[in-house]
Amino acid sequence: MLDIRQVYKAYATPQGPLRVLAGVDLRLAAGESLALMGESGSGKSTLLHLAAGLDLPDHGEVRLDGRAISSLSEPRRARLRRERLGLVFQQFHLVPSLDVLDNLRLQARLAGRESPDWTARLVARLGLAGRERHYPEQLSGGQQQRLAIGRALAPRPALLLADEPTGNLDETTAGEVLRLLLELVREAGSALLMVTHSPVVAAPLDRRLRLSHGRLGEAPP
Amino acid sequence: MSPLGVALATLLSHYRRHPGQLALLLLGLWVAGALWSGVQAINASARDSYARAEALFDADLDRLTPADSRPLDHEDFVTLRRAGLPVSPIVEGEVTAAGGERLTVIGIDPLTLPGDSALASPGAESGLEAFLTPPWRTRLAPETLAALGLSRQAAGGATPRLAGGRRLPPLAPSAALPPATLVMDIAVATQLLGRGDGLSRLVVPAGALAAAPPGYDLERAEQRLAPGELTASFHLSLTAMALLALIVGLFIVQAALGLALEQRLSLLRTLRALGVPGRTLIGLLALELALLGLVGALAGIASGVGLARALLPDVAATLSSLYGAEVGRTLQLPWHYWLGGLGVTLGGLFLAGSGVLWRAARLPVLGLGQAQAWRAGYQRQLGRQALAGAASALLALGLWAWLATRPPGEGLVAAFGLVAALLLAGALWLPPLLAAGLAGLGRWMHRRPLVQWALADLQLQLPRLALAMMALLIALSANLGVGSMVGGFRLTFLDWLDQRLVADLYLRPTPARFDEIDAWLAGRPEVAERLATASGETTLLAIGDAETPRQPVALFGITPGDTLKPGWPLKATLAGREAAWRALTGGAAFVNEQLAIARGIVPGDRLTLAAPDGGERLRVVAIYPDYGNPQGEVLLATPQLRHRFQAASGSLGIVLADGEAARPLASALRTRFDLDTTALRDQRQVKRVATDIFERTFAITRALNALTLAVAALALLASLLALARERRRQLAPLWALGVPRGRLVAVQLAQLGMAALATGLLALPLGLAVSACLVGSINVAAFGWRLPLHVFPGGMLLTLATALGAALLAGGLPSLALWRTPPRALLAEEAP
Amino acid sequence: MRGWRLLVVGLLLAGCERDPTEPRAGFAGLGADAEGFPPLASEAALAFPEDHGPHPGTRLEWWYLTANLRGPDGAPLGIQWTLFRRALRPPTAPTSGAWAADQLWMAHVAVSRGATHRVAERFARGKVGEATLERHQAGVTAAPFRAWLDDWHLESRVAEGTGDALDRLEVSAEAGRGEAAFGYRLALDAQGPLVRHGKPAFGEGSAEAAGPIYLSQPFYRVTGTVTLEGERLAVSGRAWLDREWGNRLMAPRHRGWDWFSLHLASGHKLMVYHLRGETASDTTLFGTWIAADGETRTLDAEALSLMPLTTRRVAGRELPTRWRLTLPDRGLDLTVAARHPNRWMATSVPYWEGAVTVRDHEGGLPRGEGYLEMTGY
Predict the structure, then answer these.
(1) Cα(A128)–Cα(B111) distance, rounded to whole angstroms?
(2) Which chains touch B (3+ CB pairs under 8 A)?
(3) Residues of chain C contacting residue B78, judged by C-beta atoms under 8 Å apart
(4) Among A138-147, B350-359, B524-533, B576-585, which is the least confidently predicted range?
(5) Which of C117, C140, C318, C322 could form an SS bridge with C337, CB 3.0 to 4.6 Å?
(6) Sequence-ordered list of residues with C-beta below 8 angstroms from that of A91, at least 6 positions apart, any chain
(7) What is the ipTM of this complex?
(8) Rounded to a whole number, what is the distance in Å from the CA of B21 to chain A's nearest CA?
(9) Is omega for the bond preceding C366 within 30 degrees of 0, making it cis?
(10) Which of B11, B270, B281 to mutate to test the interface with A (most CBs of A within 10 A)?
């Protein structure tokens, strides 16, 4: 479902162009989960952004469901994101002016696919029951990240892209959140592409790849 | 809900969490809309009155007046009609309503009145027969009913009583008529006015006569100034003030929008990451702007109408005392007024919001986490602003140079442009000046860490405060400028009153008894001098040998004796004051400044005026100031005026001998000649009436001025309140580092106070420059007189105090909140 | 001004309760009651010169002159000069002041030739029966006879005491400006006496229903000048002066009238009045046969018949511009036809007034000329 072929990406910096990706190939089947590992600055987030259509490659192709993202217009890419993808950020990026419930179903509503049963189930499973009318700032860090995961999964996306989803959490909370994330991804039937630097976090996923010097390689389990 | 609706609701949810910003936005729109549309409502209402006055007959009819100044009567009319001339009679005069309001009575002959006159439209039951025969009909505008103490429902057919006890013919309201005007058949009008067969004038269709018949003068319709033209300058001034208010209001809007956007930058990025296209977001932001604009503008227009309703009586008084133009005291709003108000407010909103939308449109979707990057460009922006300010200052200089080459009294629009360019230059320069000042101070204060921090912090806040400060600067300068102008005018006017009102008592005898009373006073030992006046109307025919467009001028006679001469102000003389006074006694003339400026008359010119014996040629030996007079006036010695123009006697000023009291003579006069209270006034009374008129005249200016200043202070307050929460977060680390809360509050107040003081100091020279423009150019063009430039140190102090007060008040409330916040909460707030 | 003008006439000719914007009401109103005005005696004796002057005790009155003229080239010209008086209220004690009004005066002036038809209208307020009458904008004095509004006038050229004041008249009027200016100055010399018509009463017996008093001087020979379309023309021809006063000019059942004043080639004059009602029974037809010496014979509906032949659309109305007029007793069967249909008087109360030709109905031999007035269409 996600097919990345020979992707190159470089950024202009005052010190000259900085090559981040140099011929990356990556395939992800439906329902599969994959951990993308690598050093800080190795280009993991860039690859994730390319997969989300938030950015475009200099060369190569990113295909989602067989369609080349780079050939789509911005509104079509946005639509693809809205309807097929879920995104979880390290910084959560919740909407401070919306309450928990509205944050949770924001993307589902934007995609026009809100399912009350699934939403209710997510609230219960994420341990946010009773806090539906609270605002993000009133939640703990773990709760906020769980909410961000719920927001991404509420429309049952075909592919969930997660960027260090537990990076801002303490170890215990991180474990809990990760377990929940994987369970829910399975329940939603989504594929998962997760960027992480932690082998512990990567361990439970189906596959693990490591990005270094702009190329992908198998990572030890 | 549709995805679009969800996205819009998400954007708008920001205001639910930050109602202060919403309030600020709406407040800005509301005040901008209210002041602008209020003034436009006044202007629209006045224009409606002028249009109706012009439609009455004056615009399109020529007038016939006797070549000598004998009165017209029925016989003139019949003689001319029977000679085949299509003349129609008009009698015009004033009556006083029971409530004291003065109303113009116009008597017409509908059978001969030419043209498509507004009088022609028949009222509901005012058929011609009813109009022409007893008990006749009084046709009047519905808004005139209030002056007669009647409601619209009770009006039809009512016969209200006038002050003298007489009754008006049954009323027939007609919306097409101008306010404060009663139109009726000439038969009953002459009775009501006690005119006998006398006429005010004869009118003929425009162009019907190739030349005046022998013994008459023909005044062409196009030679007359319509009231709309005379008062245009006044309305332009009002509009300028309203524009100022609009701009200040839009400054608030821009500040609020900027804040609301900045705080939603990460939200915008999140939404784009969640799949809302960028263009959709811009569209939604524009929609948000439109929704807010609609609410704010409608509220503004509604309040504007209320404001106009409150101010209109003062405006009407001003127009009537400055220009003699009658304006209705109730609002008459055409449909396009509403659309126009909405259009201007919304247009201004989009102008203010366009920068915000542009910034949002250029927002990189991947900038997640690096919010407020655009602030880095602020330094560059300051540079551009300084350049724009310089351009604006150059424009002002150019306009000033151009105006200096024009004859006085011209270029009203350019003069307003000059003021606008000055204000704009000042406003644009303010942030760069503040930034430079702060940077300099910071270097100088590097040994005092807290001060240095405060300066650096203020520099950081500058982008957000700049707009509010600019608004404050504009309002302060305009306030100081207008305040100095009005204050200077007031001083000059009071001086001038003192110089002109030299007698102790003023007596207004009927012409028939004038000589009798004068003779009696001549024999009284306590009377030191009698100052007889006379007045009349004539037409200016020529200046030198050049014929001028015929212009009606007033004639006024004074008694140039020992009491009057020393104080009477003169602006220019031919050969010194003494010589001028001698020449006046000998038959020469003075002209007032208005006439001199309008016609370019200088001492030494010879004027030809229409007189009973043909044209009287008079030499002008001096020009005198004549504040508050809408008309050109020629001054002569009373005996000369009465002899050469057969003018009616006017008032009689009585100067008492030293040590004599006015009261005994006044009561002696009252008993001896059976005078009523209005015929005899003492000097204090006259001065009080004149001063009252003056104060009312400028009440509207003062009110608008104060409102604008209040709006600017509000803008500053609102901007600071909006920033307050964020400020507390920035202060928390300092507190954590060991700075006591008291110091923090003090530092914050000091920061704001300094910025405001700097703004106020810049406003002083700017205000003076504005005042100089008002006094030197705009006044001359608008009113026809030039005033000396007065500087009021008190006013300047007040300006500084206002700036400081507004800033401290604005800073005080957040500081109070800071003071009350438990220290721990400060740090808790620091977390995201 | 339109509003007033319509109003003026609505009121001048009609009762004041009528809607003045409905022109027909103006003529229909001439049949309305005239409350407060003393009734006219049906067989009132007349006294001259007093009866040449105004009768302020009556509601309505007119001095109505029409002339069939020819210019130097023989082309026919028509002129009209009319002064109407209407009392604003029944006679009471006069109100003081020069402007006080109890009478409304209205004057119509028209000159027509071919397709050209020039019309002017003026109004004035008046007070009748005052010593200073001649110092008013409009009025009529009996001795010396003079009727005027502004500079438009009709006045006697007869020295006092040497004959009837109407025997020799001068009429003069100027109107319009520039290219549209028109007017005339004519001398009128009567070749026969003043005649009185037997206008029937309209009502059924009541004194107030008495018809108006109706006189004519149909015998004028005319010479003078006419100004039209920038030309000054020497003209000559015949004229007919009508005098009528009363409180009502027709009965309530009447809708309007057709009036014929004909100069027959035989030297006879013929006046025909056709007061139209809704139905034939509501219609009144009468006339006067006037011999060259002034002897009159009143014609009633038996002695006359009148039938419209052709109608033309004029000013949005259907107007009969050709008529068949028969006087069986005199063996006359005539066609009376307008010289031109465009003689519409677009005055405050509009009506049709224009010159006509008279021919034999069979054969079309010319038998005379005259004027036709049609109101209430």
Answers:
(1) 90
(2) A, C
(3) 135-137
(4) B350-359
(5) C322
(6) A168, B368, B369
(7) 0.87
(8) 13
(9) no
(10) B270
Q: How near does any CA of chain C get to the CA of B290, in Å? A: 47
- Domain A33-45+75-218, CATH class in plain words: alpha beta
Residue-range domain boundaries for chain C: 2-33+48-89+102-374
Cβ(B178)–Cβ(C85) below 8 Å: no
Amino acid identity for residue B705 in this structure: N
- For residues C350 and C9, what is the distance between their CA atoms, to the nearest angstrom? 9
DSSP C205-258: S-GGGPPPEEEEEEEEEEEEEEEETTEEEEEEEEEEEEEEEES-SS-TTEEEEE
Asked whether C295 and C196 are in contact (CB, 8 A), the reply is no
| Per-residue pLDDT tens over the stretch C28-53 | 445 555 567 777 766 668 888 889 99
**Strand, coil or helix: what is B652?**
strand
Q: C268 near C255, Cβ under 8 Å?
A: no
B133, B136, B265, C105 from C9: Cα distances, Å: 16, 18, 77, 10
Confidence of residue A43 (pLDDT cuts 50, 70, 90): confident
- Of A118-132, B737-751, B809-823, C243-257, the range with the highest mean pLDDT is A118-132
- Binary contact (B10, A93; C-beta < 8 A): no
Evaluate whether chains A and B are touching (3 or more beta carbon pairs less than 8 Å apart): yes
The DSSP bridge pattern shows strands C182-190 and C317-327 to be: unpaired
Residue C236 pLDDT class (50, 70, 90 cuts): very high
Residue A96 to residue B269, Cβ atoms within 8 A: no
Cβ neighbours of C97 in B, within 8 Å: 187, 190-191, 196-197
User: Which position has the token pair 């915000």?
Assistant: B356
Closest CB to C123: pick one of B111, B121, B196.
Answer: B111
CA distances for B738 relative to B741, B749, C253, angstroms: 9, 19, 111
Task: Say if residue C65's pLDDT is above 90.
Answer: yes
Closest residue, chain A, to B9 (C-alpha)? A98
Among candidates C95, C124, C135 on the partner chain, residue whose Cβ is nearest the Cβ of B111: C124
Q: Is B18 on the interface with A (CB under 8 A)?
A: yes
Neighbours of B414 (CB within 10 A): 18
Task: Name the CA dihedral angle for B255, B260, B262, B267, rounded to a multiple of 10 degrees.
Answer: -170
Q: Which residues in chain B are contacts of C348 at CB distance < 8 A?
A: none
Interface of A with B in 94-123 (CB under 8 A): 94-98, 102, 106-107, 109-112
Q: Which two tokens stand for residue C352?
A: 């049709």
Angle between helices B662-673 and B511-522 (to 10 degrees): 130
The mean-pLDDT minimum among A170-174, B240-244, C284-288 falls in B240-244
**Strand-strand pairing, A67-68 and A59-64:** antiparallel
Backbone angles phi, psi at B668, to 5 degrees: -60, -40
User: Taking the domains of chain A in order of start, what are their residue ranges?
Assistant: 33-45+75-218
CA dist., res. B193 & res. B510, Å (int) = 16
d(CA A152, CA B273): 11
The answer to whether the CB atoms of C1 and B83 lie below 8 A apart is no
Structure-token pair, residue B722: 């909006």
The hierarchical CATH code for the domain C2-33+48-89+102-374 is 2.40.370.10
Helix (H) / strand (E) element for B64: namely strand B61-66
CB-CB: which of B10, B15, B365 is closest to A54?
A: B365
Side-chain-facing half-sphere of A198: CA atoms under 13 Å? 15
Do the beta carbons of residue C36 and residue C30 sit within 8 Å?
A: no
- List of residues 6+ apart from B491 with CB closer than 8 A: B790
Give the whole-angstrom CA distance, residue B702 versus residue B574: 38
